[in-house]
Amino acid sequence: MTEPHSSTLTRRSIVAATAAGVAALTAAARGEIIDVSAETSHNDHEESGSGTVVEMPFGALEDGTRISMIRMTNARYMEVGILTWGGIIQCLCVPDRDGRIANVSLGFNTASEYEANSPYFGAIIGRYANRIANGRFELDGEEFQLETNDGPNNLHGGPQGFDRRVYDWKDVSKDDVLAVRMSRVSADGEEGFPGELTYNVTYTLTNDNHLRIDYFATTDRKTVVNLTNHTYFNLGGEGSGNILDHVLQINASRFTPVDETVIPTGEHVEVAGTPFDFTKPKPVGQDIADTSSEQINRGQGYDHNWVLDRDGTDDLFEFATLSHEPSGRLMTCRTTEPGVQFYSGNFLDGSLIGISGQPYAYRSGLTLETQHFPDSPNQPDFPSTVLEPGDEYRSTTIYEFSIIDAD
Ligand code: GLA
User: From the centroid of its chain, how far is CA 378?
Assistant: First the structure.
């Protein structure tokens, strides 16, 4: 990892975080696990630090476009690095119970690897997260045909989705809360979607180790929008093995089953008595191989949308916890969205070499993609994903990092 190319881009000074801690974070971003326990406990008593936002070069795309990583480092040694390509979270470096920092998100070390190989690692997903059946839908009687890239379907916005675009970035930090905004305009007709969509995604890192992601969009013509982030989490650190020992709870008593092409059938089915029941904390691996379940077979594991047990509002709702006993890391998740796609990394097969030089084995990361339900444009009974001119699309998801209670 190279050092910042211009010190004038450092917008905030480090107060509580020590130089050793920052060096450790830089190393953790490279995939090394670093012990900063002494500094971390020091910081627990001194939280006046305001952290830093630094732009660093991250190589170039095939066409020569230069990519940056915007690195936010808070006063408690948590670091989030966002790329100007795809708005990708390349680094999500979080301490474990002993203060050792590891990158808990899968990814690559170079822009060219992301461009050539990435299964959406860490990226903004749009214009429509997950699948639209046959890449087709109607609005006011007019039919739109999208690009298809998953058998007959449109997946994650198409072959050139929001994960494969260059973004403008801006430091929108306020006081001691670090925030970086990625912005772009998606042209009318891009990947087949109607309307020019002006959108931005803001990543906020607090000194409580919360990563908040706010999505915002407007359109000049009626369209559909469904934005998410596709970070693959491994709370043991990327490259450390599979996620079958992670304990997951999802506050959802129903899920949307899928057909053979992984398109929702339109039903809401109770999770009780099925491998999809995560209403109480359960190891991800416990029922994942239950091949008596047709739905497990169709998803090749978990790759489904859970219908969150919301209270009828679109307030922030705690929808999941993910914990990892060996490291002590705990992630608590909140969202304003009605659904979450829990995907258990079923298509990882060891062929991709990640940040720390380790192959990403089968199920070595999992995603919790907050969203409106897949294929909603073709499912009249699902919550609407239509955005009208003059209206604002807003969505928020927060991933909060802490340590499992000792008792
Ligand atoms: C989503 C989809 C999966 C798969 C992954 C990326 O989670 O639902 O089927 O495409 O993205 O590989």
Answer: 25
Side-chain half-sphere CA neighbours of 277 within 13 A:
9
Which of these is catalytic: 156, 210, 230, 324?
Answer: 230
Confidence of residue 356 (pLDDT cuts 50, 70, 90): very high
Q: Is the distance from the beta carbon of residue 232 to the nearest atom of ligand 1 less than 6 Å?
A: no
In whole angstroms, give the CA distance from residue 151 to residue 186: 24
The model's pTM is 0.91
User: According to CATH, what is the number of the domain 125-157+175-403?
Assistant: 2.70.98.10
Tell me which residue of 295, 258, 297 sits closest to 130, measured CA to CA.
258
Cα separation, 248 vs 68, whole angstroms? 33
Is the minimum distance from the CB of 373 to ligand 1 under 6 angstroms? no
CA 179 / ligand 1 centre spacing (Å): 28
From the list 55, 115, 191, 369, the catalytic residue is 369
| pLDDT score recorded for residue 378 | 98
Ligand 1 atom 2: the closest Cα is on which residue? 130
Q: What percent of the chain has pLDDT over 70?
A: 87
Q: Which residue CA neighbors atom 9 of ligand 1 most closely?
A: 303
Domain(s) of CATH 2.70.98.10: residues in the chain: 125-157+175-403
- Residues 198-224 have pLDDT tens digits of 999 999 999 999 999 999 999 999 999
Query: Residue 367: CB within 6 Å of ligand 1?
Result: yes
